């Protein structure tokens, strides 16, 4: 392809030959090959400009920067809004795969991953294959790509979309993070359906305040319908959420469908008579003149909301109501979201959940309380290099809504784990509670809760890391998975029980 074919009508300034050949494109100098275009992006850790020389040495034929770079060796495009330009460039380079796909974009603070899994199940039940891009991984046609980001960079999205379409798949279900919306990662992508789950406090380290966070999320809805596709566009909104109602006022040109589980709120998809059991949730659903009793294998009222969002997205994407209901009823559990660890024979339950905001923690604790456990014990920490203000809020909720809390570490990243815990303790002290213990090492905390604290009838919640298979500290990334660590100590506890029995000792709880 020639460079001139890849230029959009943005205000790009080209230095050098517009007929330069472009055989590939990347924003990472280490991936540059002969005749590639290199996007030198301003980063959070380093600056892509530092790698231009390396990109040229690796064979780049074009460099794209946000301010002129001193070289005559290769063609150069200078563009101020490089992230948006990169997305438009990706669209052209990969020949608009988004126009060949029916794309559902899910946004909101909590529930995105769960909704994508539910939609995937619904589509599979109707015999439809889809691609999924989200926090856990990017997957299609048996391929599983490790996810570095919930929503990857635009060039990666376009490359994946092209492969999805070339594999004959027609649907893409995608989580759209607020970072992605702010950083132009989905700029120009033509979505067909956009879902808004909820908006609560999160990522204010990045967005600074809730208004800007909301502004980022609302872009997905404002831009819905702009583009060349002329099929029906649909915005699906949780009207029970304060920001969902605010979203109705931002000027959405697509068709709007509301969902709700609160009696007084008018909505297109309505849940009532919700019953939560330890096997899942059951509720009545009404849509137009249709009714169904839904039984999902996901615990908690928050998952009823996720189910409503998924069902609405499917129905708006031409899946019949009956098939969508059946698919939802069959929808599988989501890795690391209220995932049960096998504790058979021990008399207590352990669940692993990705709650890493105060709202998520509250939702999950409410779901667990509904199961009437003897006690709830939590093991949790807060991530480093992320919104500090959520730490005391999570601390307060944890001690107020449970019987005992082990405060520990969750991806401290470059921060001192003790400092993060001190921030959590501010909220605990504000609540005037003493039902907690600090165990900085996460594995030690999990070990202690299983070996010493857990008693018959208890539910242990390991919160914050969900499906993650790593722990990031200032020393780097090491393998770590809550489920696997819990299994290790459950195994040890069982062995100790057997040994005690054989030695004729009575069971002993510390
Ligand atoms: C803050 C942020 O968004 N960072 C993302 C960004 O990295 P960065 O800007 O920090 O990159 P950098 O390391 O400074 O490097 C700058 C540039 O130099 C290039 N480079 C670097 C080294 C080299 O040798 N050669 C080279 O060309 C890099 O490729 C990059 O283009 O671009 C990277 C590549 O796409 C992302 O993986 C990275 O996400 C990091 C991992 C991250 O933690 N992001 C979080 C905050 C995030 O975006 N989260 C949301 C989800 C939130 C949620 O769902 O709750 C998400 O969508 O994932
Ligand atoms: N609809 C909901 N409302 C409130 N909390 C929820 C909801 N759905 C899930 N949660 C909580 O949030 C956690 C994360 O859920 P999920 O992974 O589905 O959300 P997400 O939006 O993809 O999160 P992330 O942005 O971190 O990827 C769950 O483990 C659960 O604790
Ligand atoms: N998408 C979220 C995930 C947080 C998960 C938690 N385990 C942490 O590391 O803080 C983020 O990157 O902020
Ligand atoms: Mg997610």
UniProtKB/TrEMBL annotation:
Top-level division of the source organism's lineage: Bacteria
Boundaries of every Mur ligase C-terminal domain copy: 336-466
Principal location listed in the UniProt entry: cytoplasm
InterPro entries (alphabetical): Folylpolyglutamate_synth_CS, Mur-like_cat_sf, Mur_ligase_C, Mur_ligase_C_dom_sf, Mur_ligase_cen, Mur_ligase_N, MurE/MurF_N, UDP-N-AcMur-Glu-dNH2Pim_ligase
Record keyword Cell wall biogenesis/degradation present: yes
Enzyme Commission number(s) of this protein: 6.3.2.13
Keywords: ATP-binding, Cell cycle, Cell division, Cell shape, Cell wall biogenesis/degradation, Cytoplasm, Ligase, Magnesium, Nucleotide-binding, Peptidoglycan synthesis
One of the GO BP terms on file: cell division
Cellular component terms per the entry's GO annotation: cytoplasm
Chain residues that bind ATP: 108-114
Cofactor: Mg(2+)
UniProt-annotated binding residues for meso-2,6-diaminopimelate: 386, 410-413, 464, 468
Post-translation changes: Carboxylation is probably crucial for Mg(2+) binding and, consequently, for the gamma-phosphate positioning of ATP.
Protein location: Cytoplasm
Mur ligase central domain ranges (all copies): 106-314
Pathway in which this enzyme or protein is active: Cell wall biogenesis; peptidoglycan biosynthesis
Any Pfam family matching the protein: Mur_ligase_C
SUPFAM superfamilies, alphabetized: MurD-like peptide ligases, catalytic domain, MurD-like peptide ligases, peptide-binding domain, MurE/MurF N-terminal domain
UniProt function note: Catalyzes the addition of meso-diaminopimelic acid to the nucleotide precursor UDP-N-acetylmuramoyl-L-alanyl-D-glutamate (UMAG) in the biosynthesis of bacterial cell-wall peptidoglycan.
PANTHER family in UniProt: MUR LIGASE FAMILY MEMBER, UDP-N-ACETYLMURAMOYL-L-ALANYL-D-GLUTAMATE--2,6-DIAMINOPIMELATE LIGASE MURE HOMOLOG, CHLOROPLASTIC
Family: Belongs to the MurCDEF family. MurE subfamily.
Protein name per the record: UDP-N-acetylmuramoyl-L-alanyl-D-glutamate--2,6-diaminopimelate ligase
């Amino acid at each position: 392809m020639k460079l001139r074919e890849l230029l959009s009508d943005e205000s790009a300034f080209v230095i050098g030959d517009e007929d330069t050949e472009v055989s590939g494109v990347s924003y990472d100098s280490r991936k540059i090959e002969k005749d590639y275009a290199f996007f030198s992006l301003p980063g959070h850790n380093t600056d892509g400009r530092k790698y231009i020389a390396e990109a040229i040495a690796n064979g780049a034929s074009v460099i794209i920067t946000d301010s002129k770079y001193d070289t005559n060796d290769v063609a150069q495009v200078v563009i101020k809004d490089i992230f948006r330009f990169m997305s438009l460039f990706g669209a052209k380079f990969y020949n608009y795969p988004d126009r060949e796909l029916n794309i559902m974009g899910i946004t909101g603070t909590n529930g995105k991953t769960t909704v994508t899994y539910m939609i995937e199940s619904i589509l599979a039940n109707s015999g439809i294959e889809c691609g999924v891009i989200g926090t856990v991984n990017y997957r299609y046609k048996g391929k599983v790509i490790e996810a570095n980001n919930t929503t990857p960079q635009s060039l990666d999205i376009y490359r994946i979309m092209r492969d999805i379409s070339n594999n004959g798949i027609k649907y893409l279900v995608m989580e759209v993070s607020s970072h992605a919306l702010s950083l132009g990662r989905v700029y120009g992508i033509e979505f067909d359906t956009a879902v808004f789950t909820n908006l609560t406090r999160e990522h204010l380290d990045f967005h600074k305040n809730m208004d800007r966070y909301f502004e980022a999320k609302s872009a997905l809805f404002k831009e819905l319908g702009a583009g060349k596709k002329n099929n029906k566009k649909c915005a699906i909104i949780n009207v029970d959420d304060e920001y969902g109602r605010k979203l109705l006022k931002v000027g959405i040109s697509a068709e709007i469908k509301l969902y709700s589980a609160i009696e007084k709120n008018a909505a297109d998809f309505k849940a009532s008579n919700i019953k939560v059991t330890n096997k899942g949730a059951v509720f009545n659903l009404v849509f137009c003149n249709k009714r169904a009793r839904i039984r999902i294998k996901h615990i908690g009222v928050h998952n009823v909301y996720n189910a409503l969002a998924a069902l609405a997205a499917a129905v708006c994407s031409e899946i019949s109501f009956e098939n969508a209901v059946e698919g939802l009823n069959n929808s599988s559990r989501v890795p690391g979201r209220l995932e049960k660890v096998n504790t058979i024979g021990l008399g207590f339950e352990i669940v692993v959940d990705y709650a890493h905001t105060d709202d998520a923690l509250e939702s999950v604790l409410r779901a667990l309380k509904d199961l009437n456990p003897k006690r709830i014990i939590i093991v949790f920490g807060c991530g480093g290099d992320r919104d500090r203000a959520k730490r005391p809020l999570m601390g307060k909720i944890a001690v107020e809504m449970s019987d005992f809390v082990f405060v520990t570490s969750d991806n401290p990243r470059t921060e001192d784990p003790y400092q993060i815990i001190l921030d959590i303790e501010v909220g605990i002290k504000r609540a005037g509670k003493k039902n907690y213990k600090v165990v900085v090492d996460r594995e030690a905390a999990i070990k202690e809760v299983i070996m010493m604290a857990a008693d018959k009838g208890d539910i242990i919640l390991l919160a914050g890391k969900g499906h993650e298979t790593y722990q990031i500290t200032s020393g780097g990334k090491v393998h770590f998975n809550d489920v696997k660590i819990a299994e290790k100590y459950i195994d040890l506890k069982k062995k100790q029980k057997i040994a005690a029995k054989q030695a004729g000792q009575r069971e002993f709880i510390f």
